[in-house]
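Write out the 3D structure for:
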Amino acid sequence: MNKTMEQRADADTREWVLEVGGSHATAAAIDVDRPDEPFARHSDETIDGGAPRDELLDTIARPAQAALRAASAEAADVHWAVAMPGPFDYDSGVGRFAGVGKFESLRDVDVRQELAHRLGSPPHQIRFVNDAVAYGIGEWAFGAAERVDRLVCIALGTGVGSAFLRDGTPVDHGPDVPPAGEAHRIVWNGAPLEDTVSTRAITAQFARRTGRTLAVKEIAALADTGDDVARSVLAEAMRALGAALSPWLKSFDARHLVVGGSMARSWHLLGSALSDGLQANGDIAVRPSALLDTAPLLGAAAWLRRECLTHPPTTPE
């Protein structure tokens, strides 16, 4: 029997989301019809991506458990959007993590079943979306992109997350986008783009040039003081990102490029160099994220609302 959105609306108009990052998990219940209203976040900032399976799953589930308790919500009535990083099989809810330096213990694990057990939710009421896609949808619907017809959103952090959106819907195949619609699959100078543009790559490049190992946040702080090497390392990475993205922005006919993720907080150090690398796309509007860490939460909520409208959940017989 289908449980329609009208039936859900009688009980609760909020969409429940759990965003999982490399070092954090955050849960919230969001009314996408009133996105400007404050909503409570329940966070756990102590995720260890190298932890054993059960420890990692327990940590991921805790913010969602806290959100349910705070709202006195019945778990059986709640539908979840879980924003997960890849590699992940979003349809089946199974982890495909291998060789990415995090979440290796979730390889081939049915995360849907494991979360359902921990939350007391029916498994079919837990759906998964790529975290960068959720970020892009958030910016498209509520942030910097003004619901343009073609948007590319890049989330910079431990990797290069991306969303190629047509009218707010992710495009993940075809000649107009990189393989699987994922910018991290772009090859730059004979190597994966993330070997040049990522927190890992920037830290390594700064260490090669100075003999000092600093986090990107510390490198950005040095650049703010006028340190030439720090400024140069950041600028080189952003120019490379712009040059690598340019042909795909052109083929996708993108109107806007939004840059988010942890590195977007240093936009004043990055924006000009990125624009230099994008010279072939001089007519594209380039903006930093307007929502920052709120973007994937709002985006996952909007995505879940659309998913439940277009593919109403069916209760197994």
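The CA atoms of residues 155 and 261 lie 4 Å apart.
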